[in-house]
Amino acid sequence: MRNQYLLFAPLLMVACVSNPAPPVAAAGPEAVAVAPDCSLETFAIYFDEGASELSDESDAVVDAVSDTFARCDLYKMEIEGHADASGDAVTNQAISAARAEAVLAALRTRGVDAERVHLVASGEKGAVTDEGAVPINRRTEVRLVPES
Questions:
Q1: CB-side exposure of 100: number of CA atoms within 13 Å?
Q2: For 82-95, what is each residue's pLDDT tens digit?
Q3: Using alpha carbons only, what angle is made at residue 38 by residues 37 and 42, rounded to the nearest 5 degrees?
Q4: Most buried residue among 38, 51, 98, 140 by CB atoms closer than 10 A?
Q5: Partners of 48 in the beta sheet?
Q6: Model pTM score
Q7: Burial class (CB in 10 A: 0-12, 13-18, 19+), 115
Q8: What is the per-residue DSSP string for the chain?
Q9: 20 or 97: whose pLDDT is higher?
Q10: What b/e string do you get for 23-48 counting C-beta neighbours within 10 Å, with b at 16 or more?
Q11: Do 54 and 45 contact (CB within 8 A), yes or no?
Q12: In Å, how far from its chain's centre is CA 102?
């Protein structure tokens, strides 16, 4: 019986050589998935003087933040509120905290987990430079940072 297998071995080899496996087609550009860019990102949301309510323009920024954060699930978020130097230090500290809270509330409505968010109220820190007061300091910075 062993000899019978030896008789068919040359035929099997010829069949394998004459009928090679079909080539694998290369994947087209539409089939290649692009990995999200989850590098350190910062978003700025600006406020009117003395205000902590989000404007209509801020909604687009909050949408971008929540979309990016959803794609980068290995990241956490830091929201830092700022104020200008037009009021006293206590009021500016409270406004910067309220701005950070307003951004967090808007992100919560978009499904962002508040447990992964760290709030910072910087008050008027950095609002006065050698050139004078910086009105653009009325903002909240949202940073996506790698978890450590």
A1: 23
A2: 998 888 889 999 99
A3: 105
A4: 140
A5: none
A6: 0.70
A7: exposed
A8: -HHHHHHHHHHHHHHHHHSPPPPPPPPPGGGSPPPP--S-EEEEEE--TT--SPPHHHHHHHHHHHHHHHH-TTEEEEEEE---SSS-HHHHHHHHHHHHHHHHHHHHTTT--GGGEEEEE-TTTTSEETTEE-GGG-EEEEEEEE--
A9: 97
A10: eeeeeeeeeeeeeeeeeebebebbbe
A11: yes
A12: 19
Q: Are the beta carbons of 127 and 84 closer than 8 angstroms?
A: yes
Q: What tokens does 89 get?
A: 């230090």
Q: Which amino acid is at 30?
A: E
Residue tagged 């809270």 (tokens): 101
